[in-house]
Task: structure prediction
Amino acid sequence: MSIEIKIPSIGESITEVTLTTWLKEDGEFVEEGDILCEIESDKATVELPAEESGVLTRSVDEGTDLEIGAVIGSLAPGEGAPAPKKEEASEESSSESSSSESAPAPSSGDKNYPSPAARKIMDEKGLSAGDVQGTGKDGRITKADAMGAQKSASSSKTATTPEPKKDAIIEAQSPSVGGERGTRREKMTRLRKTIASRLTEAKNSTAMLTTFNEIDMHWIMELRKKYKEQFKEKHDIGLGFMSFFTKACAIALSEVPGVNAMIDGDEIVYHDYADIGIAVSTPKGLVVPNVRNAESLSLAQIEKEIKRLALKGRDGKLTLDEMSGGTFTITNGGVFGSMLSTPIINIPQSGILGMHNIVERPVAINGQVVVHPVMYTALSYDHRIVDGKESVTFLYRVKELIEDPARMLLDV
Result:
């Protein structure tokens, strides 16, 4: 008797997900615990394991939006055999390549076997399996392979198109434009749709305003230069700027609690702790995991936590708990070269700090003009909670702590 494979519940607020990738082929024998597919919610991507061993029957294509509890396939326990080995797959592929085009579709172990998403693109562009070089498991054609082949085919077609006759008067008057003018469409991922929705909601539902300041990074860079080797040797982690800014923000939040608050109905919720979200750019979009209780962590602990969260974000392994909550956010556009920006609040929070690139600029020190490394910073805040005085006080406090790091130790 077949066992239905259903989309499990992955969070209280999540009602829909997208099946992004099948990792096992239709008809393939899988062992208990093998990962069948990846499903993406508006917050994270999770893997779905097989509850029992058996032959997989898929009933849903990649890219399908599904509700929690939806059936995506079934397992027939005790039937079938393990997927063919690579040597066997190669022999099968060779024998089938000599058959006519009307022969049945290749088995799941054959090379150049397209995924459903790749097959759709290939059919639209009139490409066969022989036109595409597969880079997936066992040579399987992925969606990216099909899209790349689509571009190559277009380029080839353009290259072989004969040039227009030069004696045509209208063509002489209007020369053809060189270069490709192709377009392509891709379905928005659930994460991207959620990001778009939340950013639009933040713009429309908050009284957002941004204040700016500049920070002289000379002293903190000198401190980092002096102790970075000893710091790494003792704590086994590099000393960056994010830990200083996270710590400085945690201190400033305790002194200006409005920036660490949020609106809930007709009440304002103040937090006695600082769960600071660090915006991380990943291949699938921007995610914001949280450094919990940043006010009680050392610089080394903050650095380790940021690195751990960034690596999990890059690999798509962040959990819902790591991305939920948060009382304040820091985003660092400076790593991409941004000089200045107005970051959008991560609702329902009331503040977000934007860091930018560090550039050498002339600075007046004790009546003398010297060249120091300077960073522009921006604080976007919800004016419904935070007054102008509070926002400026918060950002200036961060400036004080970064320009004189000893203040963090002395609590002054």
About this structure: Residues 103-158 form a domain with the Dihydrolipoamide Transferase fold (CATH 4.10.320.10).
